[in-house]
Every structure is written in structure tokens, then in C-alpha cells.
Amino acid sequence: MSAVCAALAADPVLARHYADFRAKTEAALDPALAALVRQAVAAVHGMGDAPDESGLDQGIRTILAYARRMPFEHTAITDAEAAAAVAHLGEAGFVAFSVLAALADAECRAEQVGLAELAGG
Amino acid sequence: MSTIPRVSSAIAGEPAHFGSVLARQPAIAESFFALYGRFWGSDVLAARIKEVARMRNARVTECGFCRNVRFDKAVAEGLGEEVVDDITDGYETSARLTDAEKAALKFTDALIHDPELLTGDAKAALQRHLTPAQIAELGLGVTLFLALAKALITMGLEPEAMDRTVLPTPAVLEAAE
After folding, report:
1. 3-state class of B71 per DSSP?
2. N or C: which end of chain B has fewer CB within 10 A?
3. ipTM of this predicted structure
């Protein structure tokens, strides 16, 4: 469970909305890719191991390299990097991926700051 | 940072902006706007404190769009431009921000920048000024502000120029409840 979901335990309606948003974002991507993106972002934050990319194709590696930029280098991502991600995912996929990678980063940060404990969760 | 959209609008006749681009994923868009409306519609945490945190995130993440938007509910609660001007480095000494807002800002900085900023004193101040339920809402808000600002920036949706714009505060979508 994410730190945000845990923090919202006392507000079931808001918790349900947040869980739905999170689930819809993940559901828009291949489940394996969504998991890899979350893992890659978490690894940048020192929260677990980076994905094993040895068996992954170049397109997935491009997406994971992009995802790793989200936590600390989001303003430095170039048009060329974005174009490569769009080429692999398509425009709709790129939108879902952008939201997921950014949300994964924010959720890692919420966990690191101890949100659930602060909110009594 | 690009101001050239990296993804096109999904709505005919509309330029690429957050809503028109998110429309490429209707299920995500519907769920997000339901969540965002519920978040802003809740009065557990005052809209003014939510907006203070949103403004801080806008400045730290360099989101020009977020920085120039104001939500009317917070303006009605007294968040004038002279207060917004104080939401910058050194906000701790502001005479216009309340102690609760300063505690919320420290939490915001810790979440979006460095968790080490939430020292024992800062944590105690946060818990003195806000209830657990209010902290939960603040945490949700900062999580969403940060994620959306980064998604917006990386999709190339930053405006080249934008005037300050007061918008209606997102509202609860009855159909989503």
C-alpha cells in the first residue's frame, strides 16, 4: 500500500478516489512495464534495487532511462528523449507513462517523509 | 525545459494543454478530476493552506502554469498576492503567513525536495498545528501537485507566457460520488 493510501485510511471516500486514480493510471500501461517504471523510480530514491534490464528490449530500456530522470532531472529531459518515448508508447501511452512516473516519484517522496505515520496511519 | 507540446491535444480545435492532452486517457482523466474535485471540495484542511502548498510546489518544480493559476476559494480565504509573494525561500520569517502555513510549507519542502528538512522540531510544529486528518489531506495534495507539475512539464505543456489567472476551484463531481 502506498504511503498516501495509508495516510487516507480515515477518509474512505478520498482514499477510494485516490486508489482509483492510481489504478486507472497503471491500467493504461502494460502491467509489467508499469511495475518496471515504479521499480526504476524507487531505485533512484534508494528504495530497492533497480530493474534487471538484461532481458529487456531497447524500447523498454529507453522508457526506464526516461523514468529515472523524473525524480531529480525533470526539467532537463529533452525533446529528443520525449520523442523517443512517444515513438515507443504512442501518444496515449506517453500520457499514461508521464503521469505514472511522476506519481511514482511523488509516492516515494511521501513514504520517505513518513506521511502515513504523520497522519496516524 | 520545453514549451513545445510533446504530445498533441485529443480534443479537436483545442490547443495542447493539460486537460486536452489528458483526454487521450479518458479513464485517467475522469478519475483524476473526480479525485481533485473531492480534494478541493473537502474542508478538512482550509483551501488557503492547500493553495499555499501548491504555490510552493509550483516555485520549486518550476511549473509556470501552476505558478500563475490561483483558485478562487483560497483567494476568498485571504490568500492575496502579498501573501503569495512570501512563499519563497525565507518564508519562515514572513509576518503574513500563519504558523500553521509555515509548518505546512516545511512539510511541503520536505516532501518535494529533501525529507531531512522535516526535523524533530518541524514535525512537532506540523502536528501541533494540523490534525492527523489535515496532514493526510496536505500529503495527498502535495503528492498530486508534485506529480501533476512534473507530468505537465515533461509533456511540454508549459506556457511560453501566461498572465496570473484566477480559476474556479475544482469542485466535487456528484456523479463520481
Report:
1. strand
2. C
3. 0.96
